[in-house]
Amino acid sequence: MNMQAPTRPIRTTCPYCGVGCGVLATPLAGGGLVIEGDPDHPANFGRLCVKGSALGETVGLKGRLLTPRIDGREAGWDEALDLIARRFSETIARHGPDSVAFYVSGQLLTEDYYVANKLMKGFIGSANIDTNSRLCMASSVAGHRRAFGSDTVPGLYEDLEQADCVVLVGSNLAWCHPVLYQRLAAARETRGTKVIVIDPRRTATCDIADLHLALAPGSDAALFNLLLAEIDRRGLIDPAFAANLDGLSEALTAARATLPSSTGLMHSELQRFLQLWTSSEKVVTVYSQGINQSDSGTDKVNAILNCHLATGRIGRPGMGPFSVTGQPNAMGGREVGGLANMLACHLEIENPAHRDAVQGFWAAPRMASKPGLKAVDMFRAVEDGRIKALWIICTNPAVSMPEADRVARAIAGCDFVAVSDMFGDTDTARLAHVVLPATGWAEKDGTVTNSERRISRQRRTLAAPGQARDDWRILAEVGSRMGWSDAFAWSSAAEIFAEHAALSGVAGALGSDFDISDYAGITAQDYDRLQPFLWPQSATRKGGRFFADGRFHHPNGKGRMIAVAPMPPQPLSREYPFRLNTGRVRDHWHTMTRTGLSPRLSRHLAEPYLELHPEDAAALSLAPASLAQVDSPYGRAILRVLVTDRVARGHPFAPIHWTGQTAPSGRVGALIDPTIDPVSGQPASKSTAVVIRPFAAAWYGFAVSTRDIAPDCDYWARAALPTGYQAELAGCQTPQDWIGEAKRLFGLCSDPLLVQDRQRGLTRLAFVEEGQLRAALFISPDPVALSRSHLASALGGDCLSGVLAGRPGQDQPDEGALVCACFGVGINTILKAVTTQGLISVEAIGEALRAGTNCGSCRPEIKSLIRAHLPA
Ligand SMILES: Nc1nc2c(c(=O)[nH]1)N[C@H]1C(S)=C(S)[C@@H](COP(=O)(O)OP(=O)(O)OC[C@H]3O[C@@H](n4cnc5c(=O)[nH]c(N)nc54)[C@H](O)[C@@H]3O)O[C@H]1N2
Ligand SMILES: Nc1nc2c(c(=O)[nH]1)N[C@H]1C(S)=C(S)[C@@H](COP(=O)(O)OP(=O)(O)OC[C@H]3O[C@@H](n4cnc5c(=O)[nH]c(N)nc54)[C@H](O)[C@@H]3O)O[C@H]1N2
Ligand code: SF4
Ligand SMILES: [Mo]
């Protein structure tokens, strides 16, 4: 029904970040997709970032799970589904509904999510369904509900374009919401928007900042309390709007008690911030994980919301607080009630009238009557045997949860674990009894909601590989086999959407903000043609912004300001003297199951690393590119040292993306403190106390191979190349026989070309077969210095000049590390253009080299390269 002729592009939505860009995907006759931005989609108007542009490179069959597996053997669907239904039913019969749990994901489509939630809360009768959104958006949800009485994002993307001042707090928008960042950057060019970045780290986002506040980690609540006190001092509290608010005077009292010193900012920086924010009526405060992932994240959210409420700067064009969501359907998950403490359609699990309404609508046999376990507590319950059957869908908690090693052990020790994923070999799937092959982006139909409440279709563009099935179908099959076939009898995603829309009408009648009942009767044809739209869509409300009218969703109709007492961060000890910050890189998505398949996405940053301030590095005797061993009370990681003053002293940063498949000792989640925010249950993933030491490597290595590399040493990190793979290696003990080691590593039996310099401890090996470079290994007692891009381009080819020297011959250019992933332009090429051709603007570089002219994700980096290397 959705498969169109291969030459016609199909409108769909990007499966990565919460910007929710529209994509035109054109299936190719021989398989695969051509990807373009959808010029008509209101999130991106044709733009795509580098991850979206590279989607076509990630839809192959490599690594895909094609059949269900039970205990490692292939099995049929009936056997696997019967087994799950039987194990869940037996466990519930013996130990009650709360002995089972689902752990799901903000990357599920709304229809998948709706079915999971219905099965657990309405039919199993427990609320033990939680989601990776607990690690992501829970503090925003809790903050919204405290302030507004509902989980409502008041504003729209265009507010960032209409504002005079945009504040980005704990958000690296340039890398994490690149198209929204580009929209902001473009608006700033035309209207001179003031941009303020609040982040302890100097990120790529600071490229467009008029002011960067590198505040003391965790001091955001203090900063926004100081702002609230200043708002009051300047007489900017809007009396008419404040009449609709509770809690103003308590919030002001708390704000006035806050000391500026706790932010660690200079007086002049702080004054500039207060001046810019208060003097711009059109101000938007965007916030993300630097706020949410904190032991007092909900208070920080409310400290921000307080300032917008007090001034009435909310819900009008160009103004408001804006929680940007991470995952493509973080918002949809909240709408269907995917969190353990919510019901469908923003209804409340603890409200009997709400419960009765949902139960009646579903004709559900036993409704959950109390909130279920939140992620961290859920895996504790798995560990101590309270949860005996667990189904993990579309998320990889063995990597992404705090205290990840402990979580992995808990999963491994659980009586029964099912995992649904596109890939059968993730760190989590490896631990499951049953692994189910799910269809992924491009293969499934449904809807997602982006950060501005816009619901868009994701459309099937490719056939399901092997026996893979849609998540909603798998869940519905299990629901039927557990005895509820009538309630789970849909035959298409469209029918589920219609049911969800009808339920939202019931919710809307109870006062819920989420009401899309206009679509309650949607037909399959209309669902196919569905255009992106903003919720709500009902007889009484159509899209638009919320709260400008001062009407909120608390029972008394008022909004609420919260008195926030800023919590100082946990003190550091002598044993663990550093505070580890964690987050994302530009070109990878979480645990890299998809972006890791694309060589160009792997070339920007190909290895796990630790950003360390130069003085810290010197004090620890850690040279650039050496390896650091990082220990916390919870685990250990080994990371490449990147010395940079982008981070503050004592506050190193590490990205989160590497796994057992890509760099087993670079799993940063293993280090992370499981402390949670007491209100939202969200973990404080941005501040773990750690100790850092040099990793005692006896040797370092770098390898390339046309076939997959299977390293077995203390440290390794693997990445895809256009013609094979590369790996960084290191070990504490030097092998006797490097040739034997190399043959094992590459699975080759021919003899390599060998260059050895015993005095300097260098060994270089190259395997050449039929005149082509098959594999090469470079070993050194120090971090291996050679041109990785040169070796990568020589791999699989017959040009062997300079291969064993590790650098190109004089006639060949060396690109260096990749900056522009779209056109493959490396750092050396850009620097040469800057220093020898005098090209000193991003536009001039773009014209000469094309770098930065497609998706634009690398423009901040090009700009900073130019700035750092400007000819005298
Ligand atoms: N390229 C890419 N984009 C993504 C993702 C991805 O994996 N890769 N994931 C998506 C998802 S799910 C999410 S949730 C979003 C996350 O998007 P962001 O929240 O923008 O990304 P992070 O890198 O997690 O963290 C943001 C910043 O918080 C800062 N920070 C740390 N501590 C503090 C603090 O105490 N105060 C303040 N003010 N800032 C602090 C960090 O230094 C970091 O730069 O990104 C989405 N987009
Ligand atoms: N230290 C630290 N930890 C963090 C964070 C941090 O900033 N610091 N950020 C947290 C945040 S905000 C987030 S959102 C999480 C993300 O963490 P995860 O959710 O664990 O990461 P993903 O790699 O996105 O996992 C998605 C999984 O679903 C699979 N998949 C993709 N599409 C489908 C599908 O359609 N169906 C099914 N069944 N499977 C599919 C993928 O192959 C992959 O295995 O990490 C959290 N962990
Ligand atoms: S900004 Fe990039 S990752 Fe996010 S939705 Fe758009 S194309 Fe996808
Ligand atoms: Mo997230």
UniProtKB/TrEMBL annotation:
Organism annotation: Paracoccus caeni
Family indicated by similarity: Belongs to the prokaryotic molybdopterin-containing oxidoreductase family. NasA/NapA/NarB subfamily.
Gene Ontology annotations for the cellular component aspect, listed alphabetically: membrane; oxidoreductase complex
Biological process terms in GO annotation: cellular respiration; nitrate assimilation
Sample GO molecular function, one term: oxidoreductase activity
Domain 4Fe-4S Mo/W bis-MGD-type, chain residue ranges per copy: 7-63
Cofactor(s) recorded in Swiss-Prot or TrEMBL: Mo-bis(molybdopterin guanine dinucleotide); [4Fe-4S] cluster
Protein name (Swiss-Prot/TrEMBL): Molybdopterin-dependent oxidoreductase
